[in-house]
TrEMBL record:
NADP(+) binds at I16, G17, P18, G19, K20, M21, A78, V79, K80, P81. HAMAP family: P5C_reductase. Keywords: Amino-acid biosynthesis, Cytoplasm, NADP, Oxidoreductase, Proline biosynthesis. Gene3D superfamilies: NAD(P)-binding Rossmann-like Domain (3.40.50.720), ProC C-terminal domain-like (1.10.3730.10). PROSITE patterns: P5CR. NADPH binds at N65. It comes from the Eukaryota. This is Pyrroline-5-carboxylate reductase.
Length: 276
């Protein structure tokens, strides 16, 4: 039986798990005007801090997860991976095919989510921490029964906190190694650039500000210019100048290979941590 589409105009969105990722998604949805806060809910009565966080921008905080599912057309599971199974099984009687289920739990595969929920209208999404500032890099994979309309709806929801790509689930470990863990690599690079500035004589606060803005500016150029990163790099590196001298040092230290190795190692670890 074909499932009925969920119109955005009437969609009600519920979060199972009132953590920071759920808050980031909810704030993005409200900020972008996709849904009003009155049509978003979660359960956080046992945690006053989280309850206040959601109530501060108008989201309804209900008594329990059962109430959240009952009140929602789209249910986003934003709990820790180790408790996803227990939470879904507990709520299974309420998880009808009329509801679109979404999981942002790292490492939990669609086949397991579908088995636990008892149906296949599920979408798995892998966002990352820059969701908190509306700049997430997210990837999604559709369960067997998820429709094109479901995909459009979730693209709108997660598009409100950054950019989202559709990808085959077989790539999710590599996505975890790149965009899931990637922000930490960039934070490390920002810290190192700032330390370099301090070593060259800059005050700490100035060095950190310059390093952070430089990374932001470079990322914006890579995203918006339409040029390959190698071309952008060449545009900065004039013959015999300061930039090519710095690049030479990075190449001698194996900079690109180190970053590639980090992504591959994190991807491998993701695969090891995922339930078989």
């Amino acid at each position: 039986m074909e499932v009925a589409p969920i119109p955005l105009e009437t969609c009600r969105l519920g979060f199972i798990g009132p953590g920071k990722m759920a808050e980031s998604i909810a704030r993005g949805v409200v900020r972008s005007g996709i849904l009003p806060p009155s049509r978003i809910c979660t359960a956080a009565h046992s945690n006053p801090t989280r309850r206040l966080a959601f109530e501060s921008f108008g989201v309804n905080v209900l008594l329990n997860n059962q109430a959240v599912v009952s009140d929602s057309d789209v249910v986003i599971f934003a709990v820790k991976p180790q408790v996803v199974k227990d939470v879904i099984l507990q709520l299974k009687p309420l998880l009808s095919k009329k509801k679109l289920l979404v999981s942002v739990a790292a490492g939990i595969k669609l086949k397991d989510l579908q088995t636990w929920a008892g149906h296949e209208r599920i979408i798995r999404v892998m966002p990352n921490t820059p969701a908190a500032v509306g700049e997430a890099a997210s990837a999604m994979s559709l369960g067997v029964a998820a429709t094109e309309k479901d995909e459009e709806l979730i693209s709108s929801v997660f598009g409100s906190i950054g950019k989202i790509w559709k990808a085959d689930e077989k790539y999710f470990d590599a996505i975890t190694g790149l965009s899931g863990s990637g922000p930490a690599y960039i934070f490390l690079a920002i810290e190192a650039l700032a330390d370099g500035g301090v070593a060259a004589g800059l005050p700490r606060e100035l060095a950190l500000g310059l390093a952070s803005q430089t990374v932001l500016g470079a990322a914006t150029m890579a995203t918006n210019s339409g040029k390959h990163p190698g071309q952008l790099k060449d545009d900065v590196a004039s013959p015999g100048g300061t930039t090519i001298t710095g690049i030479h040092e990075l190449e001698k230290a194996g900079f690109r290979g180190i970053l590639m190795n980090a992504v591959v190692a994190a991807s491998k670890r993701s695969k090891e941590l995922s339930p078989s």
